[in-house]
What does this fold into?
Amino acid sequence: MAQPLPRTETTPDAALIAAWQTGDEQAAAELVRRHARALARFLAGAGAPESELDDLVQETFVRAFRSVDRFRGQCQFRTWLMTIGGNVLKDFGRRMKRRAVIPLDEMVRDVTGDPHELAEASETVARLAAGLKALPRLQREVFLLRAQQGLEYEEIAAALATTPGAARVHYHHAVRRLKETVK
Amino acid sequence: MNEDAMIAAAKRLGSGPADRLDVEATARRVLERLREQPAHRLAWIHVQWVRIAAAVVIVLGGGFAVHQMWPVKETRGHPAHFVADDLSDLSTDQLRDVLDRFDEMVRGTGTTLPEGSSDLRELDEQQLRRVLRSLEG
It folds into this structure.
């Protein structure tokens, strides 16, 4: 076991990744603490049911840590995680298709919180969620990375192995289609 | 819904379930799962397969290269096989012509003719084949 890396909130992800590669489990745990909620938001936004969210987040991190040698710093670690999360969710969707279909609005509905906020949010967010459901996967992921996670096109393009121009086009297609379906 | 409203809704999307996630428990479980199936073992298996594949490629490629550089010459290790193949394409008359040329050899080597035969020309096709094969050893 490697000597644990002394870490603070400012320890770069790259240093934690390098520490994990030498066997420092606490470095991996710190990466989970940093990125789990953002990843969960992305997965929930992309249609993950809340009942499965924890397991999908775990699976994403496990896959990421096992294949971390393939992460070359082409984008942020968090962005890379989300692309893996997209694949995990896709695999989950395939498994669910073979079992039972879970309606997307059930997946993303927030069932707690202030009643007024909930009512407003549930209406707007549920409409958006329904619209996202109808989008092709790439458009949905680009939209979420841009609109939900606030990433630049360059970052999205690096994560999805495409060009910033193509990422921009996917985003605008997504917005146009959402405008048509979410009224 | 305009784009700004869409972005605002997107930022709220999934925030409730994400806030309810027990991050510490998730981190513990991730570490447990990594310990159950260590990445290093998977990587080791992967490396071993790559090595085996590389060894196979080297052996096959090396064999091919050697064959190209030094083609294997026909040896006399299995003459009966090739002659027999040739024989099956010859007619009786052609076989007789061949045997004419070997007549002296037959006499020289003292090869025994089949029971009751005094001259090779009296032999039928099957008998001629047997004689030829006996000459080939």
User: Anything to note?
Assistant: The interface with chain A takes residues 1-3, 5-31, 33-34, 39, 42-43 of chain B (CB under 8 Å). The first helix of chain B runs from residue 3 to 12. Chain B is about 70% helix and 0% strand.
